[in-house]
Amino acid sequence: LLLLTTRQMNHQLRVTSPIPFWIMISMMLSGLARQAAGFQATKTVASTLSKQTTGLRSVSIQRNLPHRNRICLFSTAADLSPEKKLELESQIKAKGDEIRVLKEGGADKAAVAPLVKELLALKGQLDPSILEPKKKQKQQQPKKQKQQQQKKQQQEDAESDFITAREVDYSKWYNDVIRVTGLAETSPVRGCMVIKPWGMSLWDKVRTELDAKIQEHGAENAYFPLLIPKSFLSKEAEHVDGFAKECAVVTHHRLTAGEDGLIADPEAELEDPLIIRPTSETMIWYMFRKWINSHRDLPLKVNQWANVMRWEMRTRPFLRTSEFLWQEGHTAHATREGALDDARTMMENYATLCEDLLAMPVVRGVKSPSERFAGAEETFTIEALMQNGWALQSGTSHFLGQSFGKAFEVRFQDTDGKEKDVWGTSWGVSTRLIGALIMTHSDDNGLVLPPPVAPVQVVIVPIPPKKNDEEGKIAMDKALDDMVASLKAQGIRVKVDDRDYIRNGAKYFEWERKGVPLRIELGPRDLKNNVCIFKYRAGEGSDEKLTVDLDSAASTAAEGLASMHKVLLEAAKARLDAGITEDVTYEEMKAALENDEASSYNGSGLYLVPWKCNAENEDKISAECKATIRCYPLDANQAKLHEGKKCFYSGEDATHMALFGRAF
Fold first, then answer.
1. Label partner for 304 (CA 20 to 30 A): which of 69, 124, 336, 540?
2. What pLDDT, on the 0 to 100 scale, is given for residue 141?
3. Rounded CA gap, 471 and 464, in Å?
4. Neighbouring residues of 607: CB distance < 8 A, sequence distance ≥ 6
5. CA distances from residue 250 to 246, 275, 391 in whole angstroms, order as listed
6. Residue 341: is it exposed, middle or buried by C-beta count within 10 angstroms (0-12/13-18/19+)?
7. In 141-247, which ranges are E strands?
8. H-run or E-run covering 155
9. What is the 3 state secondary structure string of 11-76?
10. Count of other CB atoms within 10 angstroms of residue 91
């Protein structure tokens, strides 16, 4: 390219002595070396050299840069005669003075503009680059800039082990705890998370405990397809309306190579598209029709542990993700009473699971008509209160009436010989219980796990003897074996952290963050004194280390863990009681919730108020202060506390006591 452009330049300029090729390269490299730091964008050498400058015998190779950073192999001004340069400079000065006088005299832009144009033309004769249009640097769009900042912040957060304090930003604290304790992290699929081993072990504890309750309830485990024909979903009108916007749809059954990579094969389009299950009522009731013929087949109760997909626009780990894990139970009954009793019983099973396993008290209630499950006649719910004053729906049980039985023509022959439609229920809890667990007990140091749900209830951190102390090592190994055996005999899940590549201080820090209820330290000096050191994560005595006899360590640990669970449950109950406000007007609630955001700590909490059931007013309140009816609490409504009271919003006679509040 350089050779060709050299020949072209020599020909165009008609120079008497052609510029040698090696001189061209030497001059170019010299200029590049001096100015390389200033380059950002360039014009090609060939296109620049091909330009001719009228009346000049030299060519300027220019870069699209400020004038001070340009490389000039040949100076245009230098080749002008002295007389010509003086003449141009004199004209430029005169034109500049003329413009200045006009401006000082208050002339408008229209009058000055032609003179400015003439001035630029004169200057262009000295330096033609002045006349070249300057490229404007594209301004970054605010939205793109914001996205980049968010992405950068997420990357920085992912690499940090810092936990934001709850009072600073409760939402960020929640995400930090999940990250630094290794519960879960984001995946390449939008809205989906990777549940890591420590997080999965928590779900396994929930699953084990709940599965025993489900089996005792009379339900048997089964598994149903992940893909559901779209036509199935259309059979129950309310059901399809409730889930239509959340469904992910499979429309083709294979891919093929296209111009830009793999594409859905146009010839492989499905006649009946498939829905990735948002819930399994339609598929299970299709199968119930095959399995149910007589009253002898009832009640029929099945349960499945599975994943489901509900497309979410705004997600939070564990609380709201596009894909999540859950269990869903489905039952069919001969009578209305049998189905209602089943739904209430499962609500109670969920409530006791939360209290006994997670140390998390809940409010038992029924949903308002607007908040019911799509296609249900009644939805029973348990609502928990998080530390920031927001509610979290933690489990639901639905009385379906006969809607699904009729939609799928599930009928049975009763004892009187007549064919009747069956009554149904469905009920479930999901991995959002892990989110509830985090936000109920954890603190600024990390997770706090109630002992029953902790994957590791006791971690033993031994302090090894000196390297040459063989007797000490033998004694330490025996003491550890004895302690582990005695703890396991008490039914305690125990782990010995004997990693020799991590300092003990780092181990203490790690297990405290992971929420292990009890840490036991054992060193050579402790062994000689026949003692060990206890450090609880929470509860009574958690502020200091306790010295405990080795002989009674296991029984002391069992008592301490039971006490810790009790303390956590009582503290959560006290927070729930204090977090429900009664006897308030709508304006008072609205003012309190006006700035109540998820990131706020110690928020306003929940409000128990008399209410006239009205879907339109419910929507208005949601629009005005973002509060929703969490439930109609069973205890308050069974006690008929609403009787004789006026609705706090409409002023009409109240029909219920309603629990309002913000919710995740």
1. 336
2. 58
3. 12
4. 580, 581, 582, 584, 589, 627, 659, 660, 661
5. 13, 6, 35
6. middle
7. 184-186, 193-195, 220-221, 227-229
8. helix 142-159
9. HHHCCCCCCCHHHHHHHHHHHHHHHHHHCCCECCHHHHHCCCCCCCCCCCCCECCCHHHCCCCCCC
10. 16
Tokens of 507: 């181990």
DSSP string of 603-650, one letter each residue: ---EEEEEE---HHHHHHHHHHH--EEEEEEHHHHHTTTTTT-B-TTT
Considering the chain, what is the average pLDDT of its residues? 86
Please state, in angstroms and rounded to a whole number, the distance separating the CA atoms of residues 617 and 625: 12
CA dist., res. 478 & res. 472, Å (int): 10
What single-letter amino acid sits at 351? A
Helix, strand and coil in the chain, % to nearest 5: 45, 20, 35
CB 641 within 8 A of CB 648: no
Residue 461, H or E segment? strand 458-462
Residue whose tokens read 């009228």: 54
pLDDT band at residue 374 under the 50/70/90 scheme: confident
Residues paired with residue 366 on neighbouring β-strands, in sequence order: 380, 632
The answer to whether the peptide bond before residue 188 is cis (omega within 30 degrees of 0) is: no
**Contact status, residue 242 vs residue 375, Cβ threshold 8 Å:** yes
- 163-199 pLDDT tens trace: 999 999 999 999 999 999 999 999 999 899 999 999 9
Residues 107, 136, 99, CA angle at the centre, nearest 5°? 20
Angle subtended at Cα 617 by Cα 616 and Cα 619, rounded to the nearest 5 degrees: 65
**Residue 230 phi/psi, 5° resolution?**
-55, -35
Enter the tokens of residue 521: 């330290």
Give the helix/strand (H/E) hosting 269.
strand 269-276
Nearest-angstrom CA–CA distance, 254 and 261? 14
CA nearest to 283, candidates 333, 332, 229, 240: 229
Closest among 435, 430, 279, 284 to 350, alpha carbons compared: 430
In the predicted structure, residue 138 carries a pLDDT above the cut 70: no
Residue 429 pLDDT more than 50? yes
Phi/psi region, residue 491 (left: phi>0; alpha: psi -120 to 50; beta: rest), is: left
Residues contacting 604, CB < 8 A, separation 6+: 389, 581, 592, 593, 596, 661, 662
**3-state DSSP call for residue 459?**
strand
- Assign residue 183 a region: left if phi > 0, alpha if psi is -120 to 50, beta otherwise? alpha
**What confidence tier does 88 reach under pLDDT thresholds 50, 70, 90?**
confident
* CA atoms of 556 and 534, how far apart (whole Å): 10
Contacts of 295 (CB under 8 A, 6+ apart): 334, 412, 413, 414, 415
